[in-house]
Amino acid sequence: GEKKKKDKKDKSSKKSKGHESEEEEEDVKPSKKSKKSKKDKKREDSDSEEEEERKEKKSKKDKKSKDSDSDWKKDSKSAKDGKKSSSSRRREEEKMAPPKLKPRTLGGDSRMKATYEAHASQDSQAKNPPCLVTVTLTNSGDCLLGPISVTMVPSMNVRVNGSIPEVATLKQGQSDTIRIELQVASVNKPQKIKCTLKYEAVGEGAPAAPQSVSCELLLPCSAFLVPRPVTPQEFDSLLANGSCTHSSSAVLEGTGRPFKHSLSLLTLLLNLRVVEGMDGSASMYAQSLQGHHVLILAKAKGGSTVSVDLRSNDEALSTQLCNEVSGLPLFIAQ
């Protein structure tokens, strides 16, 4: 009986131990699961952080793109506004009458006035192209005038090609022109030619003897320039090759006109050809009768003031042309 009780006790003990071991196993299993759960959680947290980071980067990128688009739109708008203001400015400029230059005064008296314009011949075939002078004679008195003649005294630097024609008659208020060809030896300084105007007057109060008026014709250096066409590349090459080393500058002011008109006045005065032009600046070119290069850059400086930078391969020519630019306002026709 004691043995049976002992066996039952042992079985009971084993059973309780078995239960304990099972409980321990159960305790261990949840521990493993919790470890696994922590790892998964950590991985998930890491993934979510990466996802958030990606989203943040994308958000910044989208914002940057939007900002860029916004800036582009602003630039586009300001460019359009600039175009609008520029076009309205152009319309205002178009309303203004195009500028003209007054002819130079040759001489005269109470009955007759003589003015002139001088330009270099553009005959590229001529071996020694002449300077062409057009003299305009106007009857400013009450008498009939005629015949009217112009005589010139040749010098070492200037001589007349052929004969100078006469004007047969000029009625009151009437004008006529005489064309004269001059051969010039030196083009890097102004040339002066002594002239005499002769005429006879017919009518009440007219003098009995023929009248003679002494005067002087001044040929500026601009009269020896030809507006030859050159490309922008050729213009840049002339600047870069070191041949046009002599530079001068001048300021054109007091015209009260837009840059476009100032540019037109410069081309008229110096007989230039525009190479390239844009808002507020332009490059121009001319060649003298003796082959000198003249390169000019004009820039608007505000208040209708224009700066003129000139380069040439002749120092005296460069200086004289800039002197003419400075005196340009005196020749603008009102």
- Total strands: the figure is 14
**What structural class is derived from the secondary structure elements?**
alpha+beta
**Distance between termini?**
151 Å
Assess the beta-strand content as a share of residues.
25-35%
The main pleated sheet reads as: 6 strands, antiparallel
Helical amount = 25-40%
Low-pLDDT regions: 14-30, 32-36, 64-84
Contiguous helical run count = 4
Any idea what the shape is? elongated
Account of the 3D structure:
This protein has 334 residues and is an alpha+beta fold. A hairpin with a 4-residue loop joins strand 12 and strand 13.
Name the descriptors.
334 residues, alpha+beta, six-stranded antiparallel sheet, five-stranded antiparallel sheet, 4 helices, elongated
Break the fold down into its secondary structure elements and pairings.
Elements: H1 2-95, E1 104-108, E2 112-120, E3 131-139, E4 144-152, E5 158-161, E6 175-184, E7 191-202, E8 211-219, E9 225-226, H2 232-240, E10 246-252, H3 259-270, E11 273-278, E12 281-288, E13 293-302, E14 305-312, H4 315-326
Antiparallel strand pairs: 1-2, 2-3, 3-6, 4-7, 5-6, 7-8, 9-12, 10-14, 11-12, 12-13, 13-14
